[in-house]
Design brief:
Helices cover 73% and strands 0% of the residues. Helix 11 packs antiparallel against helix 12 and helix 15 packs parallel to helix 18. Among the domains are: 111 residues, no CATH class; 138 residues; 148 residues, Methane Monooxygenase Hydroxylase, Chain G, domain 1 (Up-down Bundle). The protein is mainly alpha-helical. The radius of gyration is 57 Å and the shape is flat.
């Protein structure tokens, strides 16, 4: 039973019936769980019945205990509820007492305040009377001319003495001088003693500042706050702060360090630190910085515009950077306006005519860069043709003479220089940066447009446009021998330079004018420049005539009549003629040169024009010869090679023209019986019959009756 109780009420593990029965059977003799024992079911049954009875007794006992505990719990709950009700009643009584006490305290406090007011009403006149008595005593000492009180003789009580003299001075000033009392008080109303004490206080403040005694400085400044000389005290403080502060060459860094140091100190000394710090900054700007700026700028203002502009930009930038640092300090309500006025006061005389100096310098500098370049080439600039875009278009339409007159020899010089361009763009970039910094916001777009106009004048007109005009004038005539086509080099360099110009337009000019009406003017000006240059590039199409002329010279010099009508038809060892080889080599070089010189749609436009003219040249050239059967085969080989060359153009029309020409050359070798079939083929069916006839007539056997009959 004890074991059962211990096992059954064990709270450490959950009760498992199977384990409990197993363990009970194992402990029962004859239960059959231990080895070597005979199983006795009756004994086991008796043991189980006994245990069941014990468990029932235990259950009844526990049930009675539970009922007892429930009754006890109900009893205690009733007692607790009763106690809670009693506590609530006590709490209500205490709350009522608290309210009564609070009302009583309020009543007493009101009485005390009323009593305090009455005492104050009595004490204040008494204190004033005492102070008036003391002032009268000190007043008598002043009238007697002998200051015997300790407050006047003890230097450590200068604060009390200052307070007394300040009050006596104010009283004396209110009395009329023509009265007896006013006459007697004249020594007090006169600035003598008042001024002496003021000077003494300022001297004491100065000495304390030199000794670094912040607490003494604060004490004296508080006394001087009610004196007229308080501003002089601030001036002395500002002056002494700057002693030894500007020893380095960088006045701006020295000023920033000084203001940072004073900002930490001024709040511990003065009751109005923001006013004192603002006055220090104003003094630095109006004295130190203005003097420094004047010395730096006036030295170069009339003699060296470049250095003057660099110094102006640098000084203005460093001043505004200093202003940005000072914005961190407390300088009052509108510190932005305050600092802006200080900067404007320093630079106003220099900024008023800044843009005129900038334009003047940029103009002279740009002209010098160009002239130095042309001098290095021993070249005297020629006057170029003037006129608008419409005039150029008319010249292009009519193919009139170029404005520079007859063709001139440029000796391979393009008169375009990357170095010159870089220098001009660099000068303009610096001018844009200065303009952005130094121009008034309302004048910024206008000033930027003027700088852009200078760049257009010297880079686009005086340099690029002049080189294009010179290149056009240097284009040789179409019948010139060994002509050098330098105009394509001019086009290539001009194209590269204009990309640099366009980059500067987007990077440096656009941000300055993007939100102003000047944007449309600049874009229009740029558009006009581009259109004008494109028109002149179109005028350079005469270069293609020179190319065709060179091809004619090659063909005339290298092509022989015997090439297409060899004496020995059975002994032809070449695949294509020497003239074809040289022409194709020349054309490939020119195509590559055109691709390197131009970009975009201009490449396709020029190559198409060249391809069409190249086809016309070969077509007319082939019309000049008679062809035997083997000569016709050689002509087909030549045209096939020309067609390979035409593929380099990458223009569909050009390739189509040479395909057709190749098909026409087949008429030179096809058997007479097959002529009609070939002429009705896909590539020749749409051609005019006269063209087909003209090629058939080139055959040496054309006059034979058989051939004429088949073609008729």
């Amino acid at each position: 039973v004890a074991h059962c109780k211990g096992f059954f009420f064990c709270g450490q593990e959950p009760f498992v019936a199977d384990e409990y029965i197993e363990r009970l059977a194992w402990r029962t003799p004859g239960g059959g769980s231990r080895g070597g024992e005979a199983f006795d079911p009756k004994r086991l049954l008796e043991e189980f019945v006994n245990h069941i009875q014990e468990l029932q007794v235990m259950d009844e006992r526990i049930q009675r205990k539970v009922e007892k505990l429930e009754q006890q719990c109900q009893k205690e709950a009733k007692e607790f509820a009763k106690k809670v009700q009693e506590l609530q009643k006590s709490n209500q009584v205490a709350f009522q007492h608290f309210q009564e006490l609070d009302e009583h305290i309020s009543y007493v406090a009101t009485k005390v305040c009323h009593l305090g007011d009455q005492l104050e009403g009595v004490n204040t006149p008494r204190q004033r009377a005492v102070e008036a008595q003391k002032l009268m005593k000190y007043f008598n000492e002043f009238l007697d001319g002998e200051l015997k009180s300790d407050v006047f003789t003890n230097s450590e009580k200068i604060k009390e003495a200052a307070d007394i003299i300040q009050k006596l001075h104010l009283i004396a000033q209110e009395l009329p001088f023509d009265s007896l009392m006013g006459f007697c008080c004249y020594p007090l109303s006169s600035p003598g003693k008042y001024h002496d004490l003021e000077c003494q206080l300022i001297q004491e403040f100065t000495s304390a500042q030199r000794r670094g005694e912040i607490s003494r400085m604060r004490e004296v400044a508080a006394v001087l706050l009610h004196f007229k000389g308080y501003s002089h005290c601030v001036d002395v403080y500002i002056k002494q702060c700057q002693e030894g502060a500007f020893l380095r060459n960088d006045v701006f860094e020295d000023a920033a360090i000084l203001c940072q140091r004073v900002n930490k100190q001024v709040g511990e000394i003065f009751s109005n630190p923001e006013t004192v710090l603002a006055k220090l900054i104003q003094n630095i700007f109006e004295v130190k910085l203005q003097s420094y700026v004047k010395d730096q700028l006036e030295e170069h203002r009339k003699s060296d515009a470049e250095q003057y502009l660099k110094n102006l930009y640098d000084l203005y930038t460093r001043t505004t950077n200093l202003s940005s640092k000072l914005m961190e300090f407390n300088l009052g309500t509108d510190k932005q306006t305050f600092l802006s006025k200080l900067i404007k006061a320093i630079f106003i005389s220099y900024l008023e005519n800044y843009i005129e100096v900038e334009i003047g310098y940029l103009k002279s500098r740009s002209a010098m860069i160009l002239q130095r370049y042309y001098d290095s080439k021993n070249h005297q600039k020629r006057s170029i043709g003037t006129g608008g875009i419409q005039d150029l278009k008319e010249r292009l339409r009519q193919r009139t003479n170029l404005p520079l007159g007859p063709s001139i020899d440029t000796h391979g010089e393009t008169f375009l220089s990357q170095e010159v361009v870089v220098n001009l763009l660099q000068e303009t970039k610096q001018a844009f940066e200065r303009c952005h910094r130094l121009s008034d916001p309302s004048d910024l777009p206008k000033n930027a447009f003027r700088i852009f106009s200078m760049l257009v004048e010297f880079l686009c007109t005086e340099h690029i446009d002049y080189a294009l005009e010179t290149g056009l004038a240097g284009i040789p005539s179409s019948d010139s021998k060994n002509a050098n086509l330098y105009f394509l080099d001019v086009v290539h360099q001009a194209n590269t330079i204009f990309h640099l110009f366009d980059k500067q337009f987007n990077d440096h000019l656009m941000p300055l004018i993007s939100s102003s009406p000047k944007l449309s003017e600049c874009l229009q000006k740029k558009k006009d420049i581009i259109e004008q240059m494109e028109v002149k590039l179109d005028m350079g199409i005469d270069t293609l005539n020179c190319m065709i002329g060179q091809m004619k010279h090659i063909l005339a010099a290298e092509q022989k009549k015997t090439d297409f009508k060899p004496e020995d038809e059975n002994n032809v060892l070449i695949q294509y003629t020497n003239a074809c080889v040289k022409v194709c080599g020349y054309v490939r070089k020119q195509v590559e040169k055109i691709r390197n010189s131009m970009d975009g749609k201009n490449v396709d436009t020029v190559l198409m024009e060249l391809g069409v003219r190249f086809h016309r040249l070969i077509y007319e050239h082939l019309q000049q010869y008679s062809y035997s059967c083997m000569g016709g085969m050689l002509a087909i080989c030549d045209v096939a090679e020309y067609r390979k060359c035409a593929k380099d153009f990458k223009i569909a029309l050009v390739l189509q023209l040479f395909d057709t020409l190749h098909a026409l050359c087949n008429l030179l070798v096809v058997a007479p019986d097959n002529l009609k079939q070939v002429c009705s083929g896909e590539q020749l069916a749409n051609l005019d019959k006269n063209i087909l006839h003209s090629f058939v007539q080139l055959r040496v056997d054309y006059r034979s009756a058989r051939l004429a009959r088949h073609f008729s």
